[in-house]
Design a protein that fits this description.
With about 450 residues, this protein is of the alpha/beta class. The protein folds into 3 domains: about 90 residues, 3-Layer(aba) Sandwich (Rossmann fold), CATH 3.40.50; about 200 residues, 3-Layer(aba) Sandwich (UDP-N-acetylmuramoyl-L-alanine:D-glutamate ligase), CATH 3.40.1190; about 150 residues, Mur ligase, C-terminal domain (Protein-Tyrosine Phosphatase, Chain A). It contains 15 helices and 21 strands. A 10-stranded mixed beta sheet has the order 8-7-9-6-10-11-12-13-14-15, sandwiched between helices. Strands 16-17-21-18-19-20 form a 6-stranded mixed beta sheet, sandwiched between helices. Helix 5 crosses helix 9 and helix 5 crosses helix 10. The termini are far apart. The model has no long low-confidence stretch (mean pLDDT about 95).
């Protein structure tokens, strides 16, 4: 039996692949720095429930019986497991190489774009599952419906012929995928300059053998369109046109027009960007043979995904939202989505991830946040999340706060996030929304739950 060993198996992309292989009957093992914590993260027990053996990241898990060691871009030279693989001569595959191999085994829908990949991947899988197609899933975030079953919720080996997966551009590996159905949601400055991103997405578009679904309202995405039939958007004529958008509580409602059909769609997730996400997922469903009406029916029961504008609770009129937003476009979309259902102010908090990304996106982050926040809204930054490694620590989140203050934004720097949570909770009034944003840090979900607990016991909400 082929044995795979994942270094950093608790990472979202890695855990999805590990679960997928384990469910297919392969021997799967893995290590992670998080497993050395006391207590270990819940993901360790969840992976072990799937039959994945978990090890400390000290080289003990890689043996002569290991056939392949899987790494991500985050794994650096000097890692004990990687050194052990080199010593034993075990082949090392990048995560994207393994994913590319798996996509050649099934009819694949690959979702790309600098924002919205996890949401559209989850929505598409949900539509195909609702339609009885038993699709497979490889996602960067767990689906809430699967999390409710005690699973991580981001990797499923279905019995059907379709695989729905994310295709990541952040590390340049987008060019390795050749799906039957490809999706380009948007192309915004994130990990790379626009010119570099366009080259990657051009290759991805050329590698897609069947329908290429693109955002017809996004100037850089629509450049790759192969015809109006597989465009989605709200402006002009597209194959999937969204009209009559309106927020409904913490969800949205709109109609989709396609080839003479007009179908009402309701999605229990907030924000205009979620209409775009839903349109993309509907187009994917149709490309896989699901009727338009069935796609719309499926989205009524969409349960959302982990930390993607996830509403954790409402305590006497104060709503708490946890979101993965970390680049300029995502942060702006998350703020605006909160404004759509908030009667009062949006009190936002952001923890930047990585010194390099923060420095690279400094100007864009400041400008997008300035444009998105209303005069009464506020934002707090805490110190940059550092996951280790050799990053040059030559910028502070406080530098961005200074930039925002210069532009007249109500912005504050509280390095320790526990202080930020306390300030947010004390300052929130009924009708306000507390919006927590950040990525990569595995403890952010716990932080959001801790903030909710603080909110429940806040004297203002007694």
């Amino acid at each position: 039996m082929t044995e795979y060993f994942f270094i950093g198996v608790a990472g979202t992309g890695m855990s999805a692949l590990a679960q997928y292989l384990a469910q297919q009957g392969f021997a799967v093992k893995g290590s992670d720095r998080q497993f050395g914590q006391t207590p270990p993260p819940p993901s360790k027990a969840q992976l072990e429930t799937e039959g994945i053996l978990c090890f400390p990241q000290d080289g003990t898990g890689v043996t002569s019986a290991t056939n392949f060691v899987i790494v991500s871009t985050a794994i650096e030279k000097g890692n004990p497991d990687l050194d052990k693989a080199t010593e034993l001569g075990v082949p090392v595959l990048h995560r994207s190489e393994l994913l590319a191999r798996l996509t050649r085994e099934r009819r694949t829908i690959a979702i790309s774009g600098t924002s919205g990949k996890s949401s559209v991947t989850g929505m598409t899988w949900h539509i195909l599952q609702y339609a009885g197609l038993s699709p497979s899933l490889l996602s960067g975030a767990g689906l809430s419906s699967l999390e409710a079953q005690g699973k991580i919720g981001n990797g499923v080996a279905g019995k059907g012929e379709w695989l729905v997966c994310e295709a990541d551009e952040s590390d340049g590996t987008l060019v390795r995928y050749s799906p039957e159905v490809g999706v380009i949601l948007n192309i915004d400055k994130d990990h790379k300059e626009i010119s570099e991103l366009e080259t990657l997405f051009t290759t991805f578009a050329n590698n897609t053998s069947g329908p290429l679904i693109v955002n017809g309202d996004h100037a850089l995405a629509v450049k790759h369109s192969k015809g109006h039939e597989w465009e989605f958007g709200h402006e002009g004529f597209h194959g999937f046109q969204g009209i009559d958008f309106e927020p409904v509580g913490t969800g949205i409602r709109f109609r989709v027009r396609r080839q003479g059909q007009l179908v009402r769609v309701e999605v229990p997730s907030p924000g205009y960007h979620n209409m775009e996400n839903a349109l993309a997922a509907i187009a994917c469903g149709v490309a896989a043979g699901v009727p338009l009406k069935t796609c719309a029916e499926a989205l009524k029961t969409w349960g959302g995904i982990h930390r993607r504008h996830q509403i954790l609770g409402n305590v006497q009129g104060v709503t708490l939202v946890d979101d993965f937003a970390h680049n300029p476009a995502k942060i702006a979309a998350s703020i605006r989505a909160s404004q759509g259902f908030t009667k009062g102010r949006v009190l936002a908090w952001f923890q930047p991830h990585g010194f390099g990304p923060t420095k690279f996106l400094r100007h864009d982050l400041v400008q997008e946040i300035k444009a998105a926040l209303r005069p009464d809204d506020e934002i707090i930054f805490s110190k940059i999340y550092y996951a280790g490694g050799t990053a040059q620590q030559d910028i502070s989140a406080g530098d961005l706060i200074d930039d925002l203050k210069t532009l007249g934004v109500k912005a504050f720097y509280l390095p320790e996030r526990k202080d930020a949570a306390s300030t947010l909770v004390r300052g929130a009034f009924p009708g306000d929304t507390i919006l927590l944003m950040g990525a990569r840090d595995p403890s952010l979900a716990d932080f959001a739950r801790e903030t909710l607990a603080m909110l429940k016991y806040s004297c203002r909400c007694d």
